[in-house]
Target: Glucose-6-phosphate isomerase
Amino acid sequence: MLRLDLNNLFSERIGPEGIDWPAMLAAHARSLEVARDALLERKSNPEAFLGWIDVPEDTETLRRVLRYRQANGWVEDLVVLGIGGSALGAQAVSAALGNGSVRLHFVDNVEPEPIIGLLRTLEPHKTLVNVISKSGSTAETMAAFLVFRQWLELAVTDWKKHVVVTTDPAKGILRPYAEAEGLTAFEVPPSVGGRFSVTCPVGTLPLAFAGVDLESLLAGARKSNEQARGALEHNLPAQTALVNHLFSQRGKNIVVFMPYSTRLRYLPDWFVQLHDESLGKMRDRQGNEVRTGTTAVRAIGTTDQHAQVQLFREGPRDKLTTFVRLLAPSENLEIPAVKGLEGLEYLFGKSFFELLDAEAKATAHALAKAGQPNYTLALEKLDAYNLGWLLQHLMWQTAFLGELWNINAFDQPGVELGKEYTYALMGRKGWETLAQELKAEGVE
Amino acid sequence: MLRLDLNNLFSERIGPEGIDWPAMLAAHARSLEVARDALLERKSNPEAFLGWIDVPEDTETLRRVLRYRQANGWVEDLVVLGIGGSALGAQAVSAALGNGSVRLHFVDNVEPEPIIGLLRTLEPHKTLVNVISKSGSTAETMAAFLVFRQWLELAVTDWKKHVVVTTDPAKGILRPYAEAEGLTAFEVPPSVGGRFSVTCPVGTLPLAFAGVDLESLLAGARKSNEQARGALEHNLPAQTALVNHLFSQRGKNIVVFMPYSTRLRYLPDWFVQLHDESLGKMRDRQGNEVRTGTTAVRAIGTTDQHAQVQLFREGPRDKLTTFVRLLAPSENLEIPAVKGLEGLEYLFGKSFFELLDAEAKATAHALAKAGQPNYTLALEKLDAYNLGWLLQHLMWQTAFLGELWNINAFDQPGVELGKEYTYALMGRKGWETLAQELKAEGVE
Model:
């Protein structure tokens, strides 16, 4: 159960009389319905990259993933070679819900020392390498794959058993390579972009090894689909998209995403990518320059009360904060009394969850009192069902915002130039002219 | 050796003729010199919280820390109970330079499940608990201490050997408790605030167990002191403070901090606290309202090229980015050629560091080309000396910015209200009236 609590938006009065949310929602009903209908209509077009909507319905692929996991009980370490959308979803969910039976390692950078360290520590006989790249051309992931493939080949008798590929069903260079070598391969549906891929094998394959209840994760995601397709008064993603839209129109260019949970510590990183890469666009669908936009900022409660909250409260009023709060713990712990530390008496006999919860409420209220608007997404508890619901909710929210802003939330043209410069600097064939241009500009 | 590369500021022309940095610096020489002199003059006043400047000179305290570490060779797991400034420095430096001989665990939140998990996994006989709180009243840290103390008492014969306290030499409730119980205790100098405490025992004690070369870390910090006290043309902290100041004046309200290194993955978190808590202030020293300010955003290269760089390049022009780049690896790794993957030929035979370095340069240049200003702090390599230099540099930069903005960079008044609400919600004696008020406002 996902609940939306808008109480702390009040200090920043959106309407003239404070917030009358049903009225506000009614005033924007038309544009939200147009957005929803446009998304559902475009869904059948694979070029629209809306495949993530239907992926949670695909229980056949999930069964194949689970069979593969069951057939490979020998795995003790799973190395995920993936970056950005190919890593962040599994990272966030495994940190929240993984049972630790298989250790997950994410190679999401090319700094040599950590890779060398990992190769020295891992036992190849017990290691499975999952290389994830939709295009098969991601430089970081493929560089790592070249090294890990060789490492396995030199150390085990059948290296192919130790590699599983997740890539496009047809395009790119990994698919033909997997076929030629007879490697097990799973599909990234062509209509699913990296940052929307957590419920397809990009996320589910590593998460199966992490011991996450994937049926429930997908069931939760389907619950958000139900809301997103339905009437506005129960359409949480449309509602949170509207809140974000209204505050961005009022000049807030920063959105803070702050779960009160260490287990959810990587969820903000996943959200930051989802938000920034989807919504950070220079041109709208008609090619007009976009002049506004919001930047997502990662925070964790209570931890960041001692790091960022000073600024969130007293700093410039340029922020809208989303809190994520759990309504109940999975397991609780009592704070014992200790003689000689009576100054802490107010903690004695209370529970850690009570303290966490009090601080979450206190911070949200203190921000509101300072005129810093915020709202809370409350999860009944932290399990696969509720987390799946939250993930899909945030994907829908992002899609709705893209529609409200009339931008394509499903491409990422802005990363191309950096890739081209990298090719030129790495001396790739065909990029000699650009390399010369860069040299003339002092970059070599 | 720390180097400043301002080449990629050019696209956002600060001066009418593009950037003429020496001239720009000369134009602001007076205010920077006033700032430096004010900081150095206030240093002798403990209430000014400038103790961090002289801490790296205090080799006597460091010797005591190292003796304690040597006398406790039995430790296999070190649990740091600390939050915010009591955790972030040691976390950043140990991730970058720790040798893994002792495992460090940071308890920096009060979510019950991760604490329960840690208590179940740790072997008490081999565990040392370092409780770090200057005031001894930090709710999260002290709640964790109450639990860990009891856990040790029940499991080992001499629990006091397994606890080491880092706190104020006189104030607060931890100091008298440590004395009454005969616990080993180290000092947080009264003139050093949490976010400036990495070179005092708050940072050095855990880092001694992590195997970090602390003499070199402090020597590096002293090198930055030398620069900060010296003439402007070699005063890197004054210069980066000026860059930040000029762009904030031009409406950039977001500063991105992006090292190209997985080993430096927690450095942005440390910087975010340093920046946000120091500079996010509502009032200047005269009590006037401050209307501007900047929010720090965490990023890691290359990883965030696949998450945030789309927005950094194509999104709103509201950002100034600081890159941190390493000029040489500690150890490198070659990318092997693989038959069947000739599409990756440009990577064959190259090294991981070459790829990392090319991507760092490519991204910085691509941002500049899009009119997104950025500069680079280049470290000769990632070792204790250079990292100590960088940490102290960033502390000085923050202090200079506080002076340029005429705010107190060394307090954090904005976190008080949240603490008071927490006391009220936790039913602490003396907070009944506030609890009633909160209830009337719907918070309970």
About this structure: The longest strand of chain B covers residues 319-326.
